[in-house]
Task: structure prediction
Amino acid sequence: MKHRKRPPEQDDLLRPRLVDLIDMRHELVKLAALIDWDFFEREWAGFFPSGTGRPATPPRLVAGLMYLQHLHRLSDEAIVERWVENPYYQHFTGEIFFQHQPPIHPSSLSRWRDRIGDEGAEWLLTKTIEAGRSSGVVDDDSLSRVSIDTTVMEKNIAYPTDARLYEKARAKIVALAQEAGVQLRQTYARKAPLLAAQVGRYAHARQFKRMRKALRTLKGYTGRVMRDLRRQMDLIPSGAFRETVLDTLVLVSRLLHQPIKGGGKIYALHEPDVDCISKGKARVRYEFGTKVSIATTIDEGFVVGMRALPGNPYDGHTLAEALEQVEILTDQRPELAVVDRGYRGHGVETTRVLISGSKRGLTPALKKLLRRRSAIEPEIGHMKTDGRLARCPLKGTRGDAVFAVLCGCGHNLRKILNHIRKLLTRLLAMIIEAIAASALMKTENTHSYLFHPG
Result:
């Protein structure tokens, strides 16, 4: 069932309040005041339609943990551990008194991400945009000019080779058969791992004829085990486990019959929807993950749209969806979008699109904005180095969609915190200058009194 509102806390003589322990000028305290936390309590309550059961975790706690997690590039376990140690984290998530026990189990964050989906994650991004407006990081005029680009968010998989995939498929089928109590004719538990290692040695020695022969043998081992379990499916009672076995057999059958070249290939058994994307990089020829569309303001580099694009679509075909998301999140349609040459043939008519390399009909102001197109590249780099965009640990296309939006939330929060730090530094400098000027005036007055007593 949905959460219950926390009753007002009474003063405790043995426990001081967090506001009495922390510095209220801290950047996280300022950031917490900029976010509309009541919005999550209203909107996320709809994800809990049941009227019975244990009340859900407070939405502000979960939203704050997700913000802090992607702000500081932390895992689910790490953010819960640091929450216990850091009073500023606890104040950010709405606690009144300092807590000495973890608020939730780390697995609760996974269940919350599954429940809110990409729609709830976009609400998190919307509130960071509103916080950016309130703090002065981004203004309404700059929201009408955006820069859009795509990047690859890699998944947590090893480099795919046929030998490794066949061996993992065989081991997975054997494990399922043992769990179901099915006796296979032969499991190849001794031959298959040795042959998979030998395939790598043949490839290293450039003995490709022997490598292909060993690969065919290894593929045959996997196929025999798969067909053996398929013939004995009647021994497995109906239920969730039977469905898991059937899904695994279908997946392994796809793996064994997939062509050498072409799309729709399986590169990982635990992530069958991973795409092989070539972005023309000299250091990394292929990247295995999901394409992500990113929309930022041209002036500040503030993220106003972020969406995962499974299936590796053409960049030009994704521009309309990216502009639609920006309009939904910011409540205004961008008047100008600056893109690279991969967006040629986009077909967008409601927004003016400037493609890199265009020269006709450009005013000096538009030329200046077009030169700013490449400013989105370092923003993407910061999302991968300072944030978590470089590697997605969540499972499936649904996990990709949620994780991409949360990475945009973390980037916006880092922008807001940098702005707050600059304001605090500027305010401190002004105070120091005022104190120095006051001391100088007192010194001058003392000197004038000593030398001119009359």
